[in-house]
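Hi all, posting the design record for the shared folder.

TITLE: backbone redesign
STEP: 1 of 1
STRUCTURE INPUT:
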């Protein structure tokens, strides 16, 4: 019996060695076979949607990014998971992202934007139409619309709108000055929504919504959020049972009808001559109605484009601006440095387009804000061809959805270093570590056409508000209905904000908010960059 023990040990060692070799060979075979490793569910989660809401308790759109950063091997940089009934590929490696973005269908490649196969595909059509944001790459109308609309977003056209943008920012300042007289805390995000919506409407459609004349929000963002709430409500049910959600779909239809009624009124007023371009260049509405080189947009497509620019143009900018001031309140040293730069660049001058190049630190602050809290947490692409090999290694079937997770790319310590979760504008002195490590406006042919419009608007608003107000948070406050508070002590890994902040988990474009107490900033205070 005693002689059998070494044999048992030997057999055990041989068995363990054989098992290890088998596992290694299986892994090698899978790599050679082009199989993409599965994104494992985090501990405590049993379904993909559950994991997304768990990781995205501040905003649903950030859930995928945190899941990727926690569970996707950075040495592999790619994973796959079945989400909403579709096997979806998720990317972490910026090299793979760059390949997908460069090889876009519009540039002759095999990847593009499409929602084919998603249960949301028909809802996108019926809710948002096929404006530039949602149109598929294989949709011929996208190319025609992009060609026509590019004129409205040329560098020259955007710079010509600076006076109109300043006018809307001044209205924002006036509205907030009235609040300082009452001494009550205000949520800047609400005011940013009004300002951004009015700016888009005035600059691109010659239409004045006069949002600051009312204590409530304009009907457009209200109807849009109602539509989004309906869509998120459907996520609580398996897609196979959506046909039973009569009440939710009826409410969605009503919200869409309210949106379309507002847009149709804007179009009809231009046709009737009640509005006109308010700048010295043709505005977006004029260009769409007139067409270009014989190309004409259909009435339905014009409605879709206006819906796109109104919701994307106002909500994304409002979210980014709200987040910026949360970070500045949390980092008073950054605010002081920024104030000093603004004072040095402007002095007693009236703000004009020529001042922006003198304020690099402002640019860094905006970039760092959108790095940590990108308004659009992710974008979707799709493989349009059979048996595509991503990175020369990973096999993709035709019509495979690909999630390019902007939040994960922006917060990945593999790219940005161990301090990736911290707000450090100075990191931008050397730029992004990779062309696709920072892409808040996407990239390639499907990059955001309104990028420059938004950035200039953000700079104007930041300058005007910082010149006018010192801001601080009240000691105690409660989140508004539908929102949650992410406390400074929350163990959530990305980002580290530094103060308690409010988020709406179901907001389409994500951003942080907090109530602020405003104090008029005197010229002496501004000169010293202090509060």
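Okay, here is what came back for every position:
SEQUENCE:
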């Amino acid at each position: 019996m005693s002689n059998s023990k070494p044999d048992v040990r030997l057999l055990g060692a041989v068995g363990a060695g054989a098992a290890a070799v088998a596992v290694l060979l299986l892994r090698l075979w899978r790599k050679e076979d082009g199989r993409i490793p599965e994104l494992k569910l985090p501990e405590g989660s049993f379904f993909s949607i559950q994991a997304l809401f768990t990781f995205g308790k501040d905003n649903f759109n950030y859930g995928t990014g945190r899941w990727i950063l926690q569970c996707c091997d950075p040495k592999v940089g790619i994973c796959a998971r079945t989400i909403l009934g579709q096997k979806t590929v998720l990317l972490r490696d910026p090299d793979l992202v760059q390949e997908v973005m460069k090889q876009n269908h519009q540039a002759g490649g095999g990847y593009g934007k499409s929602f084919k196969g998603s249960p949301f595909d028909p809802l996108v059509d019926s809710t948002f139409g096929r404006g530039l944001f949602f149109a598929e790459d294989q949709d011929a109308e996208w190319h025609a619309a992009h060609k026509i609309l590019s004129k409205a977003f040329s560098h020259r056209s955007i710079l010509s709108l600076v006076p109109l943008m300043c006018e809307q920012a001044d209205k924002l300042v006036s509205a907030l000055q009235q609040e300082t007289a009452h001494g009550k805390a205000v949520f800047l995000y609400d005011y940013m929504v009004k300002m951004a919506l009015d700016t888009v409407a005035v600059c691109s459609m010659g239409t004045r919504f006069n949002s600051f004349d009312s204590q409530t929000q304009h009907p457009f963002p209200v109807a849009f959020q109602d539509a989004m709430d309906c869509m998120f409500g459907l996520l609580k049910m398996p897609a196979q049972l959506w046909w039973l959600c009569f009440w939710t779909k009826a409410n969605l239809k009503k919200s869409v009808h309210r949106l379309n009624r507002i847009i149709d009124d804007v179009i009809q007023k231009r046709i009737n001559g009640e509005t006109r371009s308010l700048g010295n260049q043709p505005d977006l509405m004029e260009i769409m109605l007139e067409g270009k080189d014989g190309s004409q947009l259909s009435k339905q497509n014009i409605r879709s484009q206006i819906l796109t620019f109104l919701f994307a143009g106002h909500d994304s900018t409002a979210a980014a601006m709200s987040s910026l001031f949360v970070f500045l309140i949390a980092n008073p040293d950054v605010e002081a440095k920024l104030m000093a730069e603004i004072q040095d660049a402007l002095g007693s001058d009236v703000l004009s387009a020529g001042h922006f190049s003198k304020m690099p630190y402002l640019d860094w602050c905006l970039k760092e804000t959108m790095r940590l809290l990108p308004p659009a947490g992710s974008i979707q692409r799709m493989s349009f061809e059979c048996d595509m090999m991503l990175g020369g290694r990973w096999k993709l079937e035709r019509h495979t959805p690909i999630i390019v997770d902007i939040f994960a790319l922006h917060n990945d310590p593999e790219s940005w270093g161990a301090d990736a979760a911290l707000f450090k504008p100075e990191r931008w002195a050397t730029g992004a570590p990779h062309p696709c490590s920072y892409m808040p406006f996407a990239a390639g042919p499907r990059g955001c056409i309104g990028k420059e419009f938004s950035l200039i608007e953000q700079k104007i608003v930041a300058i005007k508000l910082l010149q006018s107000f010192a801001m601080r948070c009240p000691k105690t406050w409660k989140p508004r209905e539908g929102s949650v508070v992410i406390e400074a002590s929350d163990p959530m890994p990305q980002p580290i904000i530094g103060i308690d902040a409010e988020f709406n988990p179901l907001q389409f474009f994500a951003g942080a908010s907090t109530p602020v107490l405003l104090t008029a900033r005197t010229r002496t205070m501004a000169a010293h960059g202090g509060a």
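COMMENT: The radius of gyration is 25 Å.
Let me know if anyone wants the other runs.
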